[in-house]
Amino acid sequence: MPQTATQIYHRNDLNRHARTFLQDFLTPGPQTYRVVHEQAVAQGISKSSLMTAKRTLDVRSTTATNGQALWQLQAA
């Protein structure tokens, strides 16, 4: 079933909110995925929207020596 214009607008709004959050949160420097996810949830951002924002912003994910995933913005 195709999405209505209202559903598309709502989805786009959620994704825009997630992109803004992720850009602002990662601008100071890399953060662990756990911290990013916890803060996103606190902002009402779903994992799906967070992952869409990650792809859209081309966020790089690396594994630190302690095994935690680090997210960071690509250098401009």
Model description:
The structure is a single chain. 55% of the residues lie in helices and 13% in strands. It has one domain: Arc Repressor Mutant, subunit A. Helix 1 packs across helix 3. With 76 residues, it is an alpha+beta fold. A 3-stranded antiparallel beta sheet has the order 1-3-2. The mean pLDDT is 92. It starts with a helix and ends with a strand.
Structural class: alpha+beta
Percent strand equals 5-15%
Total helical elements:
3
- One letter per element, helices H and strands E, the order comes to HEHHEE
**Percentage of residues in helical conformation:** 55-70%
Query: Distance between termini?
Result: 40 Å
CATH architecture group name: Orthogonal Bundle
Please give the domain count: 1
Give the C-alpha Rg: 14 Å
Number of strands: 3
- Mean pLDDT score, rounded? 92
Spatial ordering of strands, largest sheet: 1-3-2
Any low-confidence stretches, pLDDT <50, length ≥5? none
CATH topology: Arc Repressor Mutant, subunit A
* Largest sheet descriptor: 3 strands, antiparallel
Overall geometry: elongated
| CATH class annotation | Mainly Alpha
Summed up:
This protein is of the alpha+beta class and 76 residues long. The chain has a single domain (5-72), classed as Arc Repressor Mutant, subunit A.
Question: Which key features would you list for this structure?
Answer:
Arc Repressor Mutant, subunit A; 76 residues; elongated; 3 strands; alpha+beta; three-stranded antiparallel β-sheet; 3 helices
